[in-house]
Design a protein that fits this description.
Layout: H1 2-46, H2 52-55, H3 59-62, E1 72-77, E2 80-84, H4 91-95, E3 106-111, H5 117-128, E4 132-137, E5 141-142, E6 148-150, E7 170-172, H6 174-180, E8 184-188, E9 192-195, H7 202-205, H8 210-230, H9 236-244, E10 251-252, E11 270-274, E12 277-280
Parallel strand pairs: 2-3, 3-4, 4-8, 7-9, 8-11
Antiparallel strand pairs: 1-2, 5-6, 9-10, 11-12
Length: 295
């Protein structure tokens, strides 16, 4: 027994640091396993009752659900670009790296029924940091060689849109924010510029508490008002449209409303035959009240 004890003691003396390190690493490994099990359970509790497609970004792909294609960003000529189509989640991150960022003025033609609010306001904020003109127009653009650079009216309002909207040029919902990102903003021809409040996705309404929905609605409204301040929108009557118009409807900007609410005229800086209305803001944008006259 004495020999075995001496051998064991000698072995322990030679390997004690190795054994200690093994025990510590083993404890860390076991601790990590228990921690991630606890974290998974915590996330499951936090997401309980919320549809998986909201909090799991891979869910739609795993289920084989095909999302609508996002904005198509095109360079039409040297300082002319277009953003057309539905605004999808991730469009801001996708498009911003391709925006000019050297201080050179450029123009963006918009045609979109809207889509992701987050990406719409993100793009608006990035445009506001640049020297940009935003345009919604119902006439094509043809270069000196006769090549059509832009053809309007190819983006539909929605899959179930009424026939009356076929072929119409639309910038609505989250596209309305992108339009406001321009220092100069043109509405040209019989185009449809639409504003409404954001909505809670239908899949969420029955799956989370009314208190949570109400809280999020207040936060969203506050964020929208703060964004509009940053975009240079100073008139409250314009701001309120973005949180008061029901999400199930749409306010379509029209010159007939300028007489009753002249502040609406500041949504654009230039109107060119906009439902037969023509006006350009004074040199100091925001100092005049639009009326129906030629400038």
């Amino acid at each position: 027994c004495g020999e075995y004890y001496i051998m064991f003691k000698s072995f322990f003396q030679e390997t004690k640091w190795f054994l200690l390190a093994t025990v510590i690493l083993g404890a860390i490994l076991i601790g990590n396993i228990y921690y991630w099990q606890w974290e998974d359970q915590r996330q499951a509790r936090a997401n309980e009752g919320i549809p998986e497609w909201i909090w799991n970004p891979d869910y739609l792909e795993d289920q084989g659900v095909v999302e609508k294609p996002g904005l198509e960003f095109k360079k039409l000529s040297a300082q002319l670009y277009s953003m057309t189509g539905n605004i999808a989640v991730g469009d801001c991150e996708k498009i911003v790296p391709f925006l000019p960022n050297d201080g050179t003025p450029f123009t963006v033609i918009l045609e979109s029924p809207g889509g992701s609010l987050v990406d719409g306001v993100c793009l608006a904020a990035h445009l506001k940091q640049r020297n940009v003109v935003t345009v919604v127009r119902d006439t094509p653009i043809v270069d000196d060689e006769g090549k059509t650079l832009y053809e309007p009216g190819l983006v539909g309002f929605s899959d179930d849109q009424p026939a009356i909207m076929d072929g119409k040029v639309i910038c609505a919902s989250s596209c309305a924010f992108i339009f406001l990102g321009g220092d100069y903003r043109y509405l040209i021809g019989d185009v449809w510029y639409g504003i409404h409040a954001p909505r809670t996705p239908e899949g969420v309404q029955g799956s989370i508490s009314k208190t949570a929905i109400e809280t999020q609605a207040y936060r969203t409204a506050t964020g929208i008002l703060m964004l509009l301040d940053q975009l240079g929108v100073t008139h409250n009557k314009i701001k309120y449209l973005f949180i008061q118009v029901p999400s199930t409807s749409m306010y379509w900007l029209h010159p007939r409303d300028f007489g009753v609410t002249p502040e609406l005229g500041f949504i654009a800086t230039h109107y060119r035959d906009f439902w037969k209305f023509n006006f350009e803001q004074p040199v100091l944008v925001g100092t005049g009240i639009p009326d129906n006259k030629e400038k």
